[in-house]
Amino acid sequence: MRCPLLVAAVLTASIDQAAAQTGTAEGVAALARGDYQQAAEILKPIAEGWGAPDPMAQFFMATMYETGQGVPQNLLRACALYQRASGPSDNPFSAQAMKLHKALFRAHGVEWFQDCQILGTVGFDHRFEPVNLTLTPGHSIAWDLKGATITYQGKSKHVPMPLGTRGTVFFPVRQTDLASGDPGTPYRYFNEVFLWRPSEDRRSWDLEWHLFEVVRDQLIRIDVTSGPVARLQFAEPPDWRFFDVRAYVDVRRAPDGRAEWVVLQGPRAGRGIIESRSR
Amino acid sequence: MGRCLPFVVVLLLIPRLAGAQTTRDEAIGALARHDYATAARILRPLADNASSRPDPVAQFLLAILYDTGRGVARDGSRACGLFLDAVKPANPFMQSASQLSNVSLEEFGPAASMLCAAGAVWTDNPPVVLTLGPNHSVTITDTGSTIVYNGTESRSVGGLFPGMVAVPARYTPLDVSSPVRVRRHFIQSFFWTPDNPARPSNWTLGVMLGEVIGKDWASVAAERSLVTVAGARPPASFDFASVAQIRLSATGEAEWVISGGTNPRGGIVPWKDPR
Lengths: 279, 275
Hints:
The structure holds two protein chains of two kinds. By secondary structure, chain A is an alpha+beta fold. Chain A folds into two domains: 2-122, Alpha Horseshoe (Serine Threonine Protein Phosphatase 5, Tetratricopeptide repeat), CATH 1.25.40.10; 131-273, no CATH class. Chain A is built from five helices and 13 strands. In chain A, the strands form three sheets. In chain A, strands 5, 6, 7, 8, 9 and 10 form a six-stranded antiparallel beta sheet that branches. Chain A has a four-stranded antiparallel beta sheet with strand order 1-2-3-4, with no helix packed on it. In chain A, helix 4 crosses helix 5 (92-122). Chain A is elongated. Residues 1-14 of chain A have low confidence and may be disordered. Chain B is of the alpha+beta class. Chain B folds into two domains: 2-115; 128-268. Chain B is built from seven helices and twelve strands. In chain B, strands 5, 6, 7, 8 and 9 form a five-stranded antiparallel beta sheet that branches. In chain B, strands 1-2-3-4 form a four-stranded antiparallel beta sheet, with no helix packed on it. Chain B is globular, with a radius of gyration of 23 Å. The termini of chain B are far apart.
C-alpha cells in the first residue's frame, strides 16, 4: 500500500522542473521552425517569471525581443533578459547572453544601460509609471525607476533613488500638498512612493511606504517606519485603484497645523511631526 | 512493491513516446535538460557542411556548445566558423548568430581571418591513444593531447585551423644507444591545410615533430609547408617519410630530418633525462 504514495512523491518532486524543461524545449523548437507566436507564448512566462532561473528560455526570449520575433521589438527588455540569463551559471546560454548583453551596452551607452540593469533586477511587471509632478510654475519633480529629477530655478538635479528589487510592484507616485501656515512658502510638498515587495515564494507581499518632502532642489527622506506597514497574502498584488493605502498610512496636518505622518494600524502603528526644513 | 513496478515502468515510458519528434527537436530537448553531450552528438551531422543540406539552426546551437566547451572540447575557432555558417536568412537565429560571430572575430583580432572561416568542413578524428610503456600513454585529439605518466596527467591544448585535416598521429619509438641506451618516444603529427576552407582546390602538408619525455611534451621541429597537392580532398595515401622523419643516426642517436619544402634541414635530438 505504500507504493502509490512513493510513486506520487517521486512524480511531484520531478514534475515542476521537468515541466519547465519541456516548456523551454517546446518553445525553442517552435522558434527554430519560425513559429514565433507559439514560441513567445511558451517562453515568455518561463523567461520572465520568478521560478527557478532558466538561462536557455531567458536567452531565446531576449533574442525575440531584440529582433521583434513574436513580440514587439524592445531592446531594453532584450537587454534585461540577457542580464538575467547571464547570472552565475555554467549553462552555455549564460555565456552567450553575457556577450550580447555587453554588445547592447556598447551600442547604447551608460545611461540606457542603467535602465536595462534596473529592468533586469526588478522584472517587467513592476507597474511603475514615470511621472512629472509640478509643485509651482518652474518647480517640478520627475520620477522614474532610477530615482527623481528635481527642476528648480532653471536647473535640474538628479537624485538616485532605486527602490525596486527583484519582483517589486509599484503604485503610482502620489503627491500631497499641505498648507504650511507660513506666508513665505504657503505649501509643503510631499511625495509618497508605495510599493509591494514579494517574499521569495511571491505569496506574501510587504507594503512599503517611502515618504519624501521636496524642499527647493532637495529631496528629503522622512524616516517614518523601519519596515513594511503591512504584510498581505495574494497571488498577485491588486490594482492600486482597488487598494486604499490611506487605511494604513497618511501624511496630513496635525490639529496644531504642523505636518505629521501616521501609521494607522499594525505593529508599526505610530505618528510623528515632520519638522519644516524650509529655512 | 513488486506489484507496483509495472506501473512505475509505464509512467517512465510516457515522456519518451510523446517526445518522438524530429531529430533537431530532440537535440533542443537535450539542451534544455543540460545533456550537452547528447545534443552535440545529434547536432554535429546536421550542422556538417559536407552534408547535402547543412541546417543553420543546428550550426547555431552547435556553435554555442563549441564556444563554451559543453558536451564537446572547447574550440573557439570552430564555434566562430559555425556562427558564420548560421548567418542565413532562413535561420530564425540569424541575427544572434551574426552578432556572436562578430564577438568572436573581434576577440581573435588580427588572427581572425586564419582562425574563423565560413563553410569549413571539420573532420572529427577519433582520439588516438598511444601506449608508450607501463603507466605511460598519450592521447591525441583534434584539440590537444594528454600525457599520463605514473598516475599524473598533463594536458596541452592545440587546435586545428578551419578545414584542416589531421592525419592520425604516428608514434615512432627509437631504441637509442647514445648518449645513453634507452627507448625514446617520438610523435609525428602531419596535417593538411586547404587553400580555401570552404572550397579547397589544393592541400599543403605540414608537420610537427615532438618527443614525449616522462610527463612532458618537447617540440623537436615543425614545418608548415612540406609539399602541396591538388584535389578537392587530401590524398588518400601519402609517403610521409619522404618529406619528414625521425630515425636513428649512424652514431645511434635520435635524428630528425625535414626533406620536403623549400628549407630542407635536420639534426640530432638532444637527450633530456625525464624529471
